[in-house]
Specification:
mainly alpha
């Protein structure tokens, strides 16, 4: 028969209680470290915490077996303590779930903030690059035609000249299209402007 300790429980149950408390403290410290760790360290801590929580479950199963081995008041006392250990494990699981959600949410916010900053920087780089390209194109045009700056000193006049050129091209294209679509004279009909025969010629 197992010997009871001074608190109304067995020596084996007391051993299980000590192991349970050791694992619980390890989990508590690991949860605290998880909140300030980097991604690589969090992966290691997460596996360790889950393993230790499983260990708590195994210890509780051993406690249950120990409780069943007693009768009377001793069993009732051990069962009450067992209920306390079960609640303690549930609290540890909840603490781990909350800490993980908070830490992961903080990581997501940091990533999103960094992404927004990178996007803003990209727009600035694009604007600078676009300005440089426009300046380079203007310089190339100036080199091709040295008199251009003197002839067209303002950007507004340059834009107007470009629009006029486009409009002129459009007009030429429209005339060409109408010419192509207009009916052409057949071989049997006199062409417009050609010499028409006189009445006397037909009479002959």
């Amino acid at each position: 028969m197992l010997r009871l300790d001074g608190t109304g429980g067995s020596d084996m149950f007391a051993t299980y209680s000590g192991e349970f408390e050791d694992y619980r403290q390890q989990i508590t410290h690991a949860i605290e470290d998880y909140g300030v760790a980097d991604a690589a360290k969090r992966s290691v801590l997460s596996r360790k915490i889950l393993q230790d929580i499983d260990e708590l479950g195994d210890i509780i199963k051993q406690m249950e077996l120990e409780v069943r081995s007693h009768q009377g008041p001793a069993r009732q006392t051990l069962n009450e303590r067992l209920v306390g250990f079960r609640k303690s494990r549930q609290e540890v699981q909840k603490a781990w779930r909350v800490a993980k959600e908070q830490a992961d949410a903080g990581s997501r916010d940091t990533l999103l903030s960094g992404a927004r900053g990178a996007a803003g920087g990209g727009e600035g780089v694009y604007a600078q690059t676009n300005t440089r390209c426009v300046a380079a194109a203007a310089q190339a045009e100036s080199d091709r035609c040295p008199l251009l700056p003197a002839l067209v000193p303002s950007r507004a006049r340059v834009n107007k000249a470009a629009r006029d050129r486009i409009a002129a091209c459009g007009c030429r294209a429209e005339r060409a299209r109408w010419t192509a679509c207009s009916p052409r004279p057949t071989s049997g009909s006199p062409r417009r402007g050609a010499h028409s025969p006189t009445r006397s010629a037909w009479v002959r």
